[in-house]
Amino acid sequence: MTTTTIKTSKWKYGFKRWIIIGLLVLAGVLAFVGPRWFGPFKPIIPTVTLASEEIWPGAHIIPAFAIGGFSFPGVPFSNTILAILLADLALILIAIFIVRPYVRGSNPVPSKPYAALEMLMDYFWNLVKESVGAKWAWRVFPIVMTIFLIILSANWTKMLPGYETIGWLKPVEGEAHVKSYPAVPIAGGLYALNAADAGHAAGGSPTYELVPFLRGAATDINFPASLAVFTVAGIFVFGVWALKGKFFEKYFPFQRLISVPVFGAIDLLVGVLEFMLEFVKVISLTLRLFGNIFAGGLILLIIGSLTVVLIPAGLAVFELFVGTIQAYVFALLALIFIQMAMAAHGGEKDAGH
Amino acid sequence: MDGASFIQAMRFIGAGLAMFGAIGAGVGVGLAAMGGVQAMGRNPDAASTIQINMILGIVFAEAIAIYAMAVALIVLFV
Questions:
Q1: A27-41, A82-96, A199-213, A305-319 — most confident range
Q2: At residue A317, does pLDDT exceed 50?
Q3: Exposure string (b/e) for A30-50, b if CB count within 10 Å is 16 or more?
Q4: Which of A62, A132, A323, B59 could cross-link to A75 by cystine, CB 3.0-4.6 Å?
Q5: HSE value, Cβ hemisphere, 13 Å, CA-based, for A163
Q6: Neighboring chain A residues of B57 at a CB cutoff of 8 Å
Q7: Per-residue pLDDT for A353 more than 70?
Q8: How open is the CA angle A274-A138-A111, to the nearest 5 degrees?
Q9: Which of left, alpha, beta for A164 (phi over 0: left; psi -120 to 50: alpha)?
């Protein structure tokens, strides 16, 4: 028989939800009624750019230089690079403050976050073990888990406030299709872009567009592309590692060309096509992650500029879900491609799995 | 109508047309989910395996819509 105590609260519906409702009402008032009294708070429709931008005008990781006739444009320090560094930092902090106290410490009872992390690891470990077998699981698991964790970290840190909303102001000269707004000073050297009088700003006052300090790492095509190249390289490495020379016989079956000339020729043609398809995987892996995350961010910004309360919150939760699914799918596809590369060709039976 | 706004208008039309590619992907995702749910209903024990394969199928079908969207985004913003 357990005894349950019913906590009676002074507030009928709890205290925190009143704070939340208060914030919702405040946001609505500031956005819809506010423009008349406090201009800056009406959300602007952001400028959408596919390429990542510099975190500060002229910021470079590798500065531009020219040797003789060869000139190197330099590598700009873009806002997506800063975002991926923050995502890495989050993972490192988790390793130091959640995993390390249990692994190195004297306390044998794992903390709750550690247990959750271990459940995640365990799930992926079983997945890898089921598909490539216990012998290879130790070698494949780190790659799959790394891909999952870094994409998950990048996609979740992207949802923090401040991403794509705080940045420096870039003056817009040409009219073109770029959305630009006049800047309103709020405090010190801080300015807010004012959407309220965007329509009648054409009369001489300079207009600006926002270049954010931080932007979701996966909204830069270089991040998914590098992961995809890494994965496809993994396909070849594990294929050669597991099958040695037989790996390339899968694609170029010259032996069959001699034993059965006609079908051998067809097999060779199909094999060459399959070999090329391995490289197309880079494109499909890249575009899937990039497209989903970029479209998600775009929807959040555009819906967020139209309706301020409630709906963006629901979309943000959906965005977290999409980010998780994309990380899972990328890791799962990497696992399946590697497994397919390690499996021997259809005809002969592999005793391993 | 001047040239720049005509190009801009054609961009919007082109991006809209590019998204026709999402029709097939939508049907495909629906079919994959239908098959997966039916299979899980008949054989609940195999749900975890079916789920993984279902998600894979959905993702491959969805990729086509993502290609269409990439084309639309490039038409719009590049």
A1: A82-96
A2: yes
A3: bbeebbeeebbbbbbebbbee
A4: A62
A5: 25
A6: none
A7: no
A8: 125
A9: left
Residues of B in contact with A329 (CB under 8 A): 55-56, 59
Structure tokens at A96: 């130091």
How crowded is the C-beta side of A195, counted as CA atoms within 13 Å? 16
Q: How buried is A222 (Cβ within 10 angstroms: 0-12 exposed, 13-18 middle, 19+ buried)? A: middle
**Token duo for residue A60:** 């470079």
> Could you tell me the two tokens for B37?
């749910």
Contact A50 B77 (CB under 8 A): yes
- φ, ψ dihedrals at A183, nearest 5°: -95, 140
Higher pLDDT, A293 or A206: A293
Please check whether residue A47 is in contact with residue A181, taking contact to mean a CB–CB distance below 8 angstroms: no
Fold of B11-77: F1FO ATP Synthase (1.20.20)
Chain A (99-128) residues lying within 8 Å, Cβ to Cβ, of chain B? 127
Could you tell me where the beta strands, DSSP code E, fall in A34-77?
60-62, 65-67, 70-72, 75-76
| Chain B touched by A277 (CB under 8 Å) | no
What's the token pair of residue A302? Answer: 């555009």
Give residue A145's pLDDT band: very low, low, confident or very high (50, 70, 90). Answer: very high
Chain A residues near residue B70 by CB distance under 8 angstroms? 287, 290-291
- List Cα–Cα distances, B32 to A237, A244, B47, in angstroms: 32, 36, 14
Beta carbons of B59 and A50 less than 8 Å apart? no
Mean pLDDT, chain B, integer: 87
What percent of chain A stands above pLDDT 70? 84
Question: Mean pLDDT, to the nearest integer, of B62-74?
Answer: 81
